[in-house]
Amino acid sequence: MIELQKKIRIGVYICHCGLNIGGVVNIDHLIEFVKTLPFVSVARQYKFFCSEVGQNMIAADIEDNLVNRVVVAACSPRMHEPTFRQVLISAGLNPYYFVQANIREHATWVHMYDPNGATRIAKDHLRMQIGKAAELKALYPQKVKVLPSSLVIGAGISGINSAIELATQGYQVYLVERDLTIGGHMAQLDKTFPTMDCSACILTPKMVEISRNPKVKILSYSEVEKIDGYVGNFQVTIRQKAHYVDQEKCTGCGACVQYCPVSVGNEFDLGMTSRKAIYIPFPQAVPAKYTIDIKHCINCGICARSDVCEPDAIKIDDEDKIIEINVGTIIVTTGYDVINPRYLHNYGYGKYENVIDGLQMERLLNSTGPTLGKPVRPSDSKAPHSIAWIQCVGSRDNRAGRHSYCSRVCCLYAIKQARQYKEKHPEADIYIFYIDIRAFGKGYEEFYESAARDYRIKFIRGRVSELAEDPDDKSIIIRGEDTLLGQLLEIQVDMVVLSVGLECRHDAEQLSALLTIQCSADGFFLEAHPKLRPVDSLTEGIFIGGAAQGPKDIPDAVAQAKAAAASAASLMAQKEIEVEPYFSFVQNGLCSGCRSCIEQCPFGAITFNTSINKAEINSIKCKGCGTCVSTCPSNAIIQNHFSKPQLMAIIKAVLGEV
After folding, report:
1. Quick one: pLDDT band at residue 658, thresholds 50, 70, 90?
2. pTM: predicted TM-score of the whole model, two decimal places
3. Can you give the residue ranges of every domain in the chain?
4. Comparing C-alpha atoms, which of 157, 220, 162 is closest to residue 188?
């Protein structure tokens, strides 16, 4: 053991990271400090070790046999760990002889005004990682074959674009949508900002295109129930819900609708119109096949008569179907939910008839909507002479139950809707109450300026405190403050539109557990890295696209969906990939067969071998989280790269025992 330790030569490379590190801590002091630590043979500093020059310095030391372990003290390993590992590979050293000490996020950034304290903490991090480096073992990635097929969950504009991109490259795509039709929220919109293009004119051709693509299998009215396997070979179980109409026989003629005696609220129009118990959501729906809403069907049998349904497509004994598929990659494009303003009691939504939300206004403005594109007041079905839009409803609000983030689209869709109404009613008084107008995209600022200049829309800076209703004419009284003038104000308008923001899907947490991917604090799915890996999840082979990752407008959602498809295609094109060897494994001689680890594993990677009464870990499914290691009462499980000797070395180092 002594001889082995003598062979350990650790190179420590402290990066200035510009002024992020070098402008706070005493780098010279750190260099002299690490030279006193065991096994350190080389200690160097440089402005940017991630640069080509910096990487070459490390490689040269390895090639000259000066070091056989590398510690880089710099930024987060999420940023540059792959970069430095590649340096080790190029120099002929096993890449898992590398560790990174994060002295930027964990020292200088949080102690920027305390250089001595930051230097002291940086020394602790260096001690810990040097201690671990001495205990590192060579590891070797596992190779996994990748199936040339992909599952896309969610068929809004993002999912459609991801599927088309993959299908164009020759990959088989399964497009799963929980609703009856593909298209998502974009199908409900009238026009898109800032170009004022017809939303349906953009979306509908894409819907038709994907329905005709032989490489895309659309599974509408379906939900993913179970996902097993791992990158390259996911086994997916999908439940396709019963339509009670034979989808092969149905021609979409609509004769059945004329005879159905049941009327219920139409979800597509947010309950502002009615539909029959047998229906398609909207005329351009894809697939354009009818479904019976079995919850509201009275089983009168009229639609099943031969003189009503000539193809004999009614199948009242229909049952859910279970579909099992194998895919190499998964793309999550499940989109968003609109914030429900009912819990924001000061706005009176659900209490005052003439207070509606932005999506309802979108349907009223739509030429195929409840009022054929001519918005009216819900209370009297008359065109309002004055309308106010209230911004940041549910967003940019730190109060309990609300969201502190900006939803990004609300400012522009309010301006778009206000402009549309002003075009139809030039004499109308239009107000927009805002905190800040955030017009960040291409052409957005010009669109905003035009609304004030050319359409005479009145912008009032200030948060509205409350809304009240005039009992005589059902008009809405707005009370708030004009923060530019520093004055309290009260304005009475015929109708108010709440510019509600976007939030994560209500079932995002359940889906994240199913996919073994993570959610950020705001509930949206978490990307592996916000800058370098914005469409990757932390689970290999699963990618995130569109508003599933966070609020975004249509151009950004489409761009990210295409990026997710490109990442999935790049992975599948390799046909075989390497998986990080961070898995845990069971020492059979120590395993007592208690099975404690099985229920604790968040990735479903552990099974029980009844023939030997021992737990077994699937090394590909295992993500190296270490939960099983801490759970095992027999100390029978070892985790690669985070073994007990390595962790003890870190603990001893930080306690000053080294």
Report:
1. low
2. 0.87
3. 2-139, 144-238+322-335+505-579, 242-319, 338-502, 584-640
4. 157
